[in-house]
Write a structure and sequence with these properties.
224 residues; mainly alpha; 0% strand; Tetracycline Repressor, domain 2
């Protein structure tokens, strides 16, 4: 019977558990410190595993980070694509789309930091991959929600290429600015109740910007 190599896990169950623990630890550390400051040893310590096990599953630090990006991005993409094809009204689907973006970022704290790093410190290969595998499918999902809303007469003509960065900015900054917002607003922005309220607020705010009014539009010149 062949012997296991150094750091190799004993069985398939422990393999899956060890891999998931490493990914979870990497997500936490990347959210806290960013890609430049996180080491494989830090990840191993946070995951409660030996350092060779991280190398066994993921090889290099860059390969581990790419696996985290893929995991975070795939969950967000799948969630938003399901929303885009739901049978709800366009207005409800748009609200759910916003809730999906914000909910995904609350569940994966690395996601806002990842987007910020790709914006401020672009890595051509990683940025291209992110745009191709995550950004483009999510833009397509948003475009479908808008197209269906325009076709039904609920939304005015919209360019999703302009709405997408406005939406993303409103969603991402909330999480990136949490330490300052906690002091400025006097609340914990990351409390689940606060996140839920913010998602609902942003959904209504942006929806009012794209929806066609169903009642009379006030004339500002007639206001006193």
């Amino acid at each position: 019977m062949s012997e296991r190599g150094p750091g190799r896990p004993a069985g398939s169950g422990s393999q899956q558990q060890g891999r998931e623990a490493i990914l979870a630890a990497a997500r936490e550390l990347l959210a806290e410190h960013g890609t430049a400051r996180v080491t494989l040893r830090m990840v191993a310590e946070r995951a409660g595993v030996r350092a060779p096990l991280v190398n066994y599953y993921f090889g290099t630090k860059e390969e581990l980070f790419d696996a985290v990006i893929s995991e975070v991005g795939t969950r967000l993409r799948d969630r938003l694509q399901r929303i885009a094809t739901d049978s709800e009204t366009p207005e409800e689907r748009f609200r759910e789309f916003i809730d999906g973006v914000i909910g995904s970022m609350a569940a994966d704290p690395f996601a806002p930091r990842l987007i910020a790093e790709l914006v401020f410190f672009p890595d051509d290969e990683r940025t291209d991959r992110f745009a191709r595998e995550i950004g483009a499918p999510n833009l397509a999902a948003l475009s479908k929600v808008l197209h269906d809303g325009i076709a039904s007469g609920a939304f005015g003509e919209q360019d999703p290429r302009l709405l997408a960065p406005a939406l993303l900015g409103a969603c991402v900054f909330y999480f990136l600015g949490a330490p300052a917002l906690r002091r400025i607003l006097g609340i914990d922005p990351l409390d689940p109740t606060a996140v839920e309220r913010y998602a609902a607020y942003v959904g209504e705010l942006l929806l009012h910007g794209i929806a066609i009014p169903t009642g009379p539009v006030p004339d500002p010149s007639q206001e006193t």
